């Protein structure tokens, strides 16, 4: 009787073990499916990133995303300047044409005591200009001689011709400035008189600078003739 009972219990235990094994096997596919689903979602995310930044077009770096700025720290200063004195406006007009054609800076010298029409009357032996030009040592004062020539390599010096020479105020100017190492180009305006020795006289008074011959320029000189004259000085 005991033997029969033990045999029956052994059979029941075997059935239980078999049932548990089947349940374990049946749960395995469910876990594998969950893992496969997670991997699939990660793959879809990576593919989405690649679609936004394809491999043949790399994503811009932080530096590339920032707007690029041009280097604007360039010097625009000219190496030439036109310095002139104009009593009636004629020399002023020519000086402005030279400055524009040469790309030069420009500076007008103003007399401390302006010249009146009576002062400019060359027919009057007692007029101011007649007295000044008859005195080689006359040095009329300049009201605004504040120009700094140190940064220029070429200096154009313009003036009207008075009694065959440059106004004495131009002597005041050249004697007050160091023109060493600079190319100095004198030019003048007049009714008909040539530049004569006015440039040479100023060069002697300056005592420095490489003075060129310069020339007389008509009040109505054209832009093309101005450029041609400037080129002839180089």
Structural class: alpha/beta
Query: How many DSSP H or I helices?
Result: 7
Shape: globular
Q: What does the average pLDDT come to?
A: 78
Structure characterization notes:
This protein is an alpha/beta fold and 234 residues long. It has a domain at 80-233: Flavodoxin domain (Rossmann fold), CATH 3.40.50. It contains 7 helices and 6 strands. Helix 3 crosses helix 7 and helix 5 (168-175) runs parallel beside helix 6 (198-206).
Key features?
single chain; 234 residues; alpha/beta; Rossmann fold; 6-stranded parallel beta sheet; 6 strands; 44% helix; globular; disordered N terminus
Topology:
Elements (H helix, E strand, L loop, with lengths): L1 H51 L9 H4 L14 E5 L5 H13 L2 E4 L19 H6 L20 E7 L7 H8 L7 E7 L8 H9 L3 E2 L3 E2 L6 H11 L1
Parallel strand pairs: 1-2, 1-3, 3-4, 4-5, 4-6
Helix pairs in contact: 3-7, 5-6
Q: What's this entry about, in short?
A:
With 234 residues, the chain is of the alpha/beta class.
């Amino acid at each position: 009787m005991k033997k029969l009972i033990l045999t029956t219990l052994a059979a029941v235990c075997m059935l239980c073990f078999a049932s548990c094994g089947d349940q374990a096997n049946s749960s395995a596919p469910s876990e594998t499916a969950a893992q496969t689903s997670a991997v699939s979602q990660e793959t879809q995310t990576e593919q989405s990133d690649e679609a936004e930044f394809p491999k043949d077009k790399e994503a811009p770096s932080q530096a590339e995303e920032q707007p690029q700025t041009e280097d604007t720290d360039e010097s625009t200063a000219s190496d030439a300047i036109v310095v002139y004195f104009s009593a009636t406006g004629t020399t002023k007009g020519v000086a402005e044409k030279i400055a524009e054609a040469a790309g030069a800076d420009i500076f007008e010298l103003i007399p401390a005591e302006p010249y009146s029409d009576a002062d400019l009357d060359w027919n009057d032996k007692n007029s101011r200009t007649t007295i000044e030009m008859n005195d080689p040592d006359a040095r009329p004062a300049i009201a605004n001689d504040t120009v700094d020539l140190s940064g220029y390599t070429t200096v154009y010096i313009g003036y009207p011709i008075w009694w065959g020479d440059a106004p004495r105020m131009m002597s005041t100017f050249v004697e007050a400035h160091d023109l060493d190492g600079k190319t100095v180009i004198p030019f003048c305006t007049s009714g008909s008189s040539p530049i004569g020795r006015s440039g040479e006289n100023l060069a002697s008074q300056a005592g420095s600078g490489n003075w060129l011959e310069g020339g007389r320029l008509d009040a109505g000189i054209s832009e093309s003739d101005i450029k041609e004259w400037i080129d002839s000085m180089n």
